[in-house]
């Protein structure tokens, strides 16, 4: 199990950090891209250094471990970053929408004001994101195991023992 910790740690730290960096984290909207890539990275690093072929179960374990690590990082760092950057991100989003349609921007502004900047909402959103990172990282680990493992499962069987004696003789 120890040979799985280092790849999972690298994949998890990468997906956790990319999931909380403002603007970069927007790519997580695309099917939790960073989570899938973090799980795939963990599988790739494990397969690259593993002396035996990896199974889909190994990929799932690696993805799950990377997802837990990434979720913890995302929750711990994401809440304060989102609290600090929330108004800036909201104003940027409203500015973009306002350029397209003023009426829609006003409706969005009212909805955002009703939701407020409560810490409880940030915590709930962070926990939901953490759960999604876990699930999609697990899927990424499975994809990575299927994609990167080119070796056939199991060891090659030894050759049959040589025959001694004449034709039809049995050698135990």
Quick structural gist:
This protein is an all-alpha fold and 172 residues long. Helix content is 72%, strand content 0%.
Structural write-up:
- By secondary structure, the chain is an all-alpha fold.
- It has one domain.
- The chain is built from five helices and no strands.
- Helix 1 packs antiparallel against helix 2 (33-49), helix 1 (2-18) runs parallel beside helix 3 and helix 3 (56-100) packs across helix 5 (119-148).
Could you outline the blueprint of secondary structure elements for this entry?
Blueprint: H1 2-18, H2 33-49, H3 56-100, H4 102-115, H5 119-148
Main attributes?
172 residues, mainly alpha
First-last Cα distance = 39 Å
Q: State the total count of DSSP E strands.
A: 0
Q: Which structural class matches the secondary elements?
A: mainly alpha
Broad shape: elongated
Oligomerization: single chain
**Structure annotation, total helices:** 5
> Topology as H/E string?
HHHHH
Strand content bin: under 5%
The poorly predicted ranges are none
Q: What is the count of distinct domains?
A: 1
Radius of gyration: 25 Å
The largest β sheet comes out as: none
Bin the helical content. Answer: over 70%
Mean pLDDT: 85
């Amino acid at each position: 199990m120890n040979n799985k910790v280092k790849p999972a740690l690298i994949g998890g730290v990468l997906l956790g950090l990319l999931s909380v960096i403002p603007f970069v984290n927007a790519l997580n909207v695309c099917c939790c891209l960073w989570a899938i890539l973090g799980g795939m990275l963990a599988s790739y690093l494990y397969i690259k250094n593993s002396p035996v072929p990896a199974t889909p179960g190994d990929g799932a374990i690696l993805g799950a471990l990377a997802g837990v690590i990434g979720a913890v990082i995302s929750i711990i760092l994401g809440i304060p970053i989102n609290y600090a950057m929330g108004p800036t991100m909201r104003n940027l989003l409203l500015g973009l929408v306002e350029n397209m349609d003023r009426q829609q921007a006003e409706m969005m502004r009212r909805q955002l004001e009703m939701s407020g900047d409560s810490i409880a909402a940030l915590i709930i959103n962070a926990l939901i994101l953490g759960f999604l990172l876990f699930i999609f990282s697990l899927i990424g680990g499975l994809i990575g195991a299927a994609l990167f493992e080119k070796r056939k499962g199991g060891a090659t069987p030894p050759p049959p023992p040589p025959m001694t004696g004449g034709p039809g003789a049995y050698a135990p």
